[in-house]
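Q: I have 820 residues here and want to know how they pack in 3D. Can you give me a structure?
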Amino acid sequence: MIDRVDPFIGTEATALPPQTGLAATWWWPKPQIGNTHPGATYPLGMVSACAYSGGYPTGYGRYDLSLEGVPSTIHDTLLASGFTHFQQSGTGAIRKYYNYFRVTPMVEPLDVLGRSWDITDETATPGYYSATLDSGVTAEITVGPKSAVHRYTFPKHANARVVIDFSLGGLGIPYGATIPLRANLETLEPGVARGEIVAEGAPIAVHIECDTPQWRQMLWYDRRLMPGGTKLALDHIRPTTLRPFGLMWAGPSEPGQTIELRIGFSLRGVEQAEANLRADCGPGPGRFEARRERTRKTWRKHLKTISVETPSAERKTVFSTALYHSLIKPCFANSESPFWPSEGPFAFDLSTMWDIYRTQLPLLITLFPDKAVELANALLTICEEEGNFPIGYRLARGGDRFSRQGSALAHTFLAELCQAGLPGIDWEWALVHMSDDLRRTYGEEFLLRGEAHPISHTLDLAFGYWCTAKVARHVGDTALAAQFEALAARWINAYDPASGLLKDSTYYEGSRYNYSFRLQHDMAGRIEVSGGRDRFVEQLDAFFGYGAEPVVQPGNKPDAQELLAGYVLGRFEGLNNEPDMEAPWAYHYAGRPDRTAEIVQNIVHQQFGTGRGGLPGNDDSGGLSSWFVWASLGVFPVAGQNLFLVNAPSFRESTVAVAGGDFVIRTENFVEPVAGGPVQYVQRMWLDGHPLERSWLTGEEWHRGGELVVELGPAPSEWGTRDVPPSHPVAAGAAGPTSAEAGAAAAFATAQQVASLVAEALQTEPSAAPEQPELREVPDAPPPTFEETLESAEHNTPAEPATPPTTEQPGDARTTGDTP
């Protein structure tokens, strides 16, 4: 698998073949680019390194900040002004962009530091990146868990140099720079130096070794050398007072001469940075090849956890790269927390939980349960030390945690681990923090009124209570479990029973339609809200574009009218973004797995491809890529419920290394699929030799390993139409503050006030508060059709604001729409 990985996939604007059929009806509201980088990475490691152009959002590439549509460029060609450390992977407006300690190999004077050179050649494999600049210098970089090793090959020159800029950070776009607050550096002996910067409130220390015994070693400030200087300390740095500063080695070079630079990193001081370098690279010079090979072996081991059988080299490349992108983040940094002194698990770049909790974290649980447990303990420590579970957590200090995106998402992850029975977590400790966290942020409104706005938080919190009840029962606290199970029934308060869809509200990077088909704990009850299975399927069909005309995707810098025209379609986003990524699997609960097969095949074979433009949207720390991995296997995790839905795989055979051994998925009558080609439907399944009539596996069945045989055919069958996945309803009347009706009454009493506040924020007129529905009952009369609901949204009381959902700009706390 490692030989098929292409780290360049997703680094350029989306350039897939034109969509056909069902896929042509899906609308992509978010940026059409993967936002990945090809730099050197280590699986779930702390450090990455890549060429730096200042491009958005990784520091690599040609692109400007983009929040919708086709991204604009800031460079015509691929450029590099040096090579930086710490990059995001696939995110959008995440607001923390790193790119610290830029290393620039030069054959020009120090005065020109900051200029860029054309990249004339590039190579990237897992753990290794190389670029040749038009200056004639070739750079090679590899990384370890907490280190980076650079190797530069110079042409003949009388005064070549390697320059490290401690002052640079962030991006080269307006308002994109990250200014260090404080910095210090010192030279210790020839070829050895160390230092520390504090950026975004986080200290990052380095221990540096350079194999250049014949070159001069000097500090510099404001592009001027400091002859004889051994220390430099700066405090209270402001944008207006910042001058570049750093460290340099300079001397003559011969053709083909290589200079090796090794950097150990730590968030806990320079001594720990040196220890990390020793642990990663060992002592002495010439460590590049050894470190590169160790990292390659580690990547090979991680990528061998799943194997697929296909004659298509292109399909294997897309899958292998998706698995690779799924294993870059989060960054594990054990005993490296800069914010509290205790030892133990620490992680950053959960960017963000909203993007990864449904697909990437379940993949981590499946393939690397020990790392999943480590991450869970890191989250519990963060909650204990800082007061809440974050939705987003980056290498930065502060309360900017993306709480607008969702609520109680860590609870889903923890409940999945608890139900999987993995050791290593103190569940009594976890239950305390899970319980307390549910009352924070939007939780108070949920408890007081029976619902919270944005209304998707009502679904989040209800499911958070359900997940926490699972942990409570695990530790034997049945009283708390019963209390929380009753609160979990409040999911119904989020829905308008007249339409069977979510209520009027604001929605993060989507509309009510994108959020109305989530996989909840009581899907049987959810389907009844729509009026039964047939009605639910009708709504899903309209959402996925069955019978609809092809759409026109947003172009470069789409205006408000262009975006509004797309949002009012109420259409699936086609994995251009995450809010509806689980919706294709909602058909399973209505006994229509054939529809899931049709939609998933169109996504897998039309929305992902080879080449730099091979992703349909921001990969978001592996959120999209991990979805692709699951869907290609014909499996989808119902996060938090210890449940796995199964359907037609896209490979003849695949093997997944799970905790109990291998889980092998074999097919019969398989036909190699093509984009836009005929769909293959499940006819029958066998699990370990026994017929499997249901369209799901328990977590125990999945994690213990075994063999699933899938017989495929060209037409839908009866398989999966009767034994639908389980739902978990609670007793009727348990949904409100004391009942569902009382909670809804309080919420509807303030609906006009809420609408006015939303309208003020969006600069639109408020719509009238909806009439109070009678909760937990389905009207006798059929609800309006999905098309009638859309017509009402367009021509009567709008279901969405008159302007498209706003998009968060970096540093703007009022708006709601960044996509990490």
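Q: Anything worth noting?
A: The first helix runs from residue 270 to 281. DSSP finds 21 helices and 30 strands in the chain.
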